[in-house]
Design a protein that fits this description.
- By secondary structure, this protein is mainly beta.
- It has 2 domains: 133 residues, Beta Barrel (OB fold (Dihydrolipoamide Acetyltransferase, E2P)), CATH 2.40.50.140; 175 residues, Lipocalin, CATH 2.40.128.
- The chain is built from 4 helices and 19 strands.
- Strands 8-12-13-14-15-16-17-18-19-9 form a 10-stranded mixed β-sheet.
- The radius of gyration is 22 Å and the shape is elongated.
Amino acid sequence: MKITTFTYSAALAILSAAATSLAFAHHGWGGQYDTSKEVEMTGVIKSVQWTNPHVTFKLLVDGGKPTEKLWTIESNSVSALNRMSIERSVMTVGTKVKVSGFGPVAGANFGLFMNHLLLPNGKEVVFLRGAAPRWSDEIIGNDDRLHGRVVENDINKRPSTIFSVWTTVYNDSNSHGMHIISGAASSSSSSSGMAAGAAMTPSYDATGAVIVCETIPPIQEMGSPYPIQLIDQMAKNKKIIIKVEKDDTVREVNVTNAPHKAVGSPSLAGYSTGVIDANKKKLTVTTSNLLSAPDTVYTETFELSDDRNRLNYTQQTSASSLVRGRYWQYQPGASIMPYGCTNAK
């Protein structure tokens, strides 16, 4: 079989668009792999790194022969695979498997971005979103959640306020990452601390464990392609909590009717105040005192859509007239999953 629902040229186009629209550091792979064709190989799994931002494992090809090579195989994030119902148990050290994916660009060293995995029992794991099976009719993996096809048809069962779990729709650039809504960037916009970050590769500590999480301002995580959750703690301590799955991020918003005024010394997260309407359908957050840009003020809005199926988001800084935005979708049964911010082998 071959991919029929997601062409290679489309894959490259979507990859390029995603890299552009996500104006924050994220682990990119477009420059490492040749997306014009797929490469197949068979080998034995030697080790597995089941961590965000991308699952990786080592595949020994032609073991014991003069042509023996140890390939580094990379694929989707753990967060995405969880939503595709693909579990770590599909990869067992010592198992002989067949893989297919985008091979390395010229000059790269034995790397492959895996789209398909064929297990010894004949079942195929489809890792690439939107792809048809390649070898088997027995499939593991479903991308309905990632593509926004899991919806609550009864509007009365959808959230009536902004306080819920909200999920990224991966095949929609208006949801997958931040995009420009209006305005023109000023010459000083680069001073806002929100400029595009470089593509990342995993970092390792002295023991060889992957350092999963980045140390970046939490407000930048609002551009990441991961679910978020808004939690109402106003009755408890006059706060609203914003959780972002990426990097296990937790933001605190102090609910007040007073004009925004930063408290304390500049910090990574800065200081946030919020105003929410009486129906809890719109929240406006003002943040300043960030360590990276202490004089810059960030204004964000979180607003429930009329059909209660989306959380619409905008963001603007005092350093620019540019307004960026995106949306998240409500999906029944969705949750914020642990990103894994402890080093893991």
